[in-house]
Amino acid sequence: MSQSVKYQDVGKMAFRVMGACAVVAFLFFNPLVLRPRIWNLSVVANSWAIDSALLVGGFGLFYRRKWAAVLSSVAAVYIALATSRRIADMNIADAISLLLLLLPLLFSVPFWRTLIWGSRRRDPLFASAGVAISGLVELLAFLIHPAR
After folding, report:
1. Helix %, strand %, coil % for the chain, to 5?
2. How buried is 15 (Cβ within 10 angstroms: 0-12 exposed, 13-18 middle, 19+ buried)?
3. Cβ contacts of 47 within 8 Å, gap of 6 or more
């Protein structure tokens, strides 16, 4: 009674795990948990953009949306290139973190056919709600932890 694991099932589970990890990262790396030392426009804008990408992309990956895979891949490549040092100065820990950041891109290419584009009516509302929720988290963090 053993069943073989299909190629599509591996892709579905990989994207669901990546989506769940992105939502958990949103829960633990937002300004309510990690309070910034200073509040200025660039800190709020960067934090809001990263939180929105984590929340919207995470739920989109969980539901296997192609737009979420593109969003996560672009965000991961940007973060990996922005935070990595020069290749010559890279150590093992930097290489492992760079590889972990590039996992959405590495999984999107071979499992692209297991993803769906989604609903044209529901997905923009979902993305807008995610951006609004992350904005409310930023506002709440600012009100609870004002600058000193």
Report:
1. 70, 0, 25
2. buried
3. 30, 31, 36, 138
The candidate with the shortest Cα–Cα distance to 43, out of 131, 147, 128, is: 147
Structure letter (DSSP) for residue 38? S
pLDDT digits 0-9 by tens, 10-57: 888 888 988 898 888 888 887 777 777 777 888 888 888 888 988 998
- What is the number of other CB atoms lying within 10 angstroms of the CB of residue 71? 20
pTM: 0.80
Q: What would the two tokens of residue 41 be?
A: 């426009």
Specify whether the CB–CB gap between 57 and 18 falls below 8 A. Answer: no
DSSP state of 115: -
**In Å, how far from its chain's centre is CA 66?**
14
Residue 137 and residue 47 in contact, taking contact as beta carbons nearer than 8 Å? no
